Amino acid sequence: MDTTFAQRRRRDLILALILAVLAAIVPFFVKDVNVQNIMVLTLMWAALSQSWNILSGYCGQISLGHALYFGLGAYTTTLLFTKFGVLPWFGMLGGGVISALIALGLGYPTFRLRGHYFVIATIVIAEIGLLLFHNWDWAGAALGIDVPVRGDSWAKFQFTRSKLPYYYFALVFCCVAWLVTWYLENSKWGFWWRAVKDNPDAAESLGVVVFNSKMGAAAISAFMTAIGGAFYAQYVSYIDPDSVMTFQFSLLMALPAVLGGIGTLWGPVLGAVILIPLTELTRNYLGGSGRGVDLILYGAVIVLISLARPEGLIGLFSRKPASKGVPQ
Amino acid sequence: MTAATIIQSLASGLLMGLLYGLIAVGLALIFGLMDVTNFAHGEFLMLAMYGAFFLFAFFAVDPLLAAPLVAAGMFVFGAAIYLLIVRFAMRAKANIGMVQIFTTFGLAILMRGLAQFFFTPDYRSIPTSWLGGKTVSLGGIFLPVPQLVGALISVAAFGALFFFIKKTDFGRALEATREDAGAVALVGIDKNKVFALGWGLGSALVGLAGAVMASFFYIYPDVGASFALIAYVTVALGGFGSVFGAFAGGIIVGLVEASTALILPPSLKSVGIYAVYLLVVFIRPRGLFGSI
């Protein structure tokens, strides 16, 4: 059993390396800016969904409020840069640390809640954050903040002439998120999380420190989500509360993992690769009419995948259902 | 801020709260029956509002008269959604919780898209109705008639629902299925039929709410979203699985919203609702009257 598990992990790592190299080469052949934009967004959402998957997929604490951490990352970076001239790289880390701390602070009372009570708590906490940013004048309130253009440079993480630097950052972000998950899967925490997800009471009785392991998952997940938010702010160079902190973003983070395969290593990546191009293309080609054709298609796809592949699309690739010792 | 202003806003809050309860109770009923949260509940409300609007626009039916028709239509719609979609989501063997969340969430997006396609994104309203624009004065407190009548309908609907659950055969079957669906199947009750009727009843209740609200709210494809979150909070505050909890939760949410609007800027009025929800579940993790 151990050998097959070790083999599978090595195989995953090799596959990831091959895919990363391929993804790094793709821009040499794809010059279309719109396609590049879709590729950047796909990588970003894959990484965000990977981060969400740590708390909600592996540890089983379904959060539909991750927009809060995404927004905090975006706002911390942008406010530090526009108000104090702090470089986005520091803002990105700062946003990550702030989000992780807030996740720990919120986790303290909310992790006592179970099931739908927990899910709704995550939604309303994010909504409170959204409403506060809407009314916070110093942070631009509802009008939002423009990130001023100070010329293309890696130091300021701004590129107006090409999307490629963003693409490569998103690729690295996606790889790091994947590697973190890959590492955690086989760590003490990874095993604790699955025990907590399957049966918190049994886990507790076997000596798993349930509360601490939930807190750990929340902090890691929030930190990585905030990095994504900071990146997004730099990428679109304009943020307002509605464009970074609405419920929509929380759902968008969950969707790729859910459709790809929740609590699996490849689920978020697979889900994002299918879902994000579909979203963007339907919006570009069908959304312009304002008649909701893009929504109809998107909604129908979600319903169909949920019904046809409840374990996620990753189920299409597994040769046998749920190999021993490796929770799916 | 005088005492009169405070009483005035609390009275309006109470009326709105009774409506929130009526919007939420269908959600509570369905959840209590089968542990499914319908994430398209807001879109059901939207559909019911359009139903009342089109009955008015094409046949000049007043929303008050349309309410029973819309409720009946929504009953059929809800039962059909269960039989055609939700039933299959319940069969999932893996992560059933996420499957039902995202199936109904996909349905919500689909319904919003269809509404945009067929009804256009324009804001509609019912400009003239029997009750619209009228107010009554009760001891110096002015109450808008549509909300007042809506609140009375809500109280009546809750009364009928309590009677129905406690006293009729179907109500007992509903309760029994909720307690133990397997045992119910053994005594010859078709679980799917009970679930379909539960979805029908829950949808009829939100249909009633939608028809009442159509006379004083704008009607547009996204209208459900803002009410849906309030409905989830209402149900959770009252406690999942409790119909009475939805009634009490609605009143609390309405009163808290009105009081928050007195203290904070109007744009922050929902913060009060959310804060009260968090406070309640931090103290009582099962909501006020919840059993699960």
Task: Please render the helix and strand layout as text.
The complex is a heterodimer of chains A (328) and B (292).
Chain A: H1 2-25, H2 33-58, H3 67-84, H4 88-110, H5 115-134, E1 145-146, H6 164-185, H7 188-198, H8 200-205, H9 210-236, E2 238-239, H10 241-244, H11 247-260, H12 267-286, H13 293-308
Antiparallel strand pairs in A: 1-2
Helix pairs in contact in A: 1-6, 2-6, 2-9, 2-11, 2-12, 3-4, 3-5, 3-9, 4-9, 6-9, 7-9, 11-12, 12-13
Chain B: H1 3-34, H2 41-59, H3 63-89, H4 96-119, E1 135-138, E2 141-144, H5 145-167, H6 169-179, H7 181-186, H8 191-213, H9 223-238, H10 243-263, H11 269-283
Antiparallel strand pairs in B: 1-2
Helix pairs in contact in B: 1-5, 1-8, 1-9, 1-10, 2-3, 2-4, 2-8, 2-9, 3-8, 5-6, 5-8, 6-8, 9-10, 9-11, 10-11
Cα-atom radius of gyration of chain A? 20 Å
Would you tell me the structural class of the helices and strands of chain B?
A: mainly alpha
Structural class of chain A: mainly alpha
Radius of gyration of chain B: 19 Å
Strand order in space, largest sheet of chain B? 1-2
Which residues of chain A sit in consecutive blocks of at least 5 with pLDDT less than 50?
320-328
Main sheet: strand order of chain A: 1-2
- Please estimate the helix content of chain B: over 70%
- The ordered H/E elements of chain A are HHHHHEHHHHEHHHH
What is the fold-level CATH name, i.e. the topology of chain B? ABC transporter involved in vitamin B12 uptake, BtuC
Head-to-tail CA distance between termini of chain A = 15 Å
Q: Could you describe the 3D structure shown?
A:
The complex is a heterodimer of chains A (328) and B (292). By secondary structure, chain A is mostly helical. Chain A has one domain. Chain A is built from 13 helices and 2 strands, in the order αααααβααααβαααα. Chain A has helices at residues 2-25, 33-58, 67-84, 88-110, 115-134, 164-185, 188-198, 200-205, 210-236, 241-244, 247-260, 267-286, 293-308, and strands spanning 145-146, 238-239. A two-stranded antiparallel ribbon of chain A has the order 1-2. Chain A is globular, with a radius of gyration of 20 Å. By secondary structure, chain B is an all-alpha fold. Chain B has a single domain (3-283), classed as ABC transporter involved in vitamin B12 uptake, BtuC. Chain B has helices at residues 3-34, 41-59, 63-89, 96-119, 145-167, 169-179, 181-186, 191-213, 223-238, 243-263, 269-283; strands at residues 135-138, 141-144. Chain B has a two-stranded antiparallel ribbon. The relative contact order of chain B is 0.21. Chains A and B meet through α5, α11 and α13 of A and α3, α4, α9 and α11 of B.
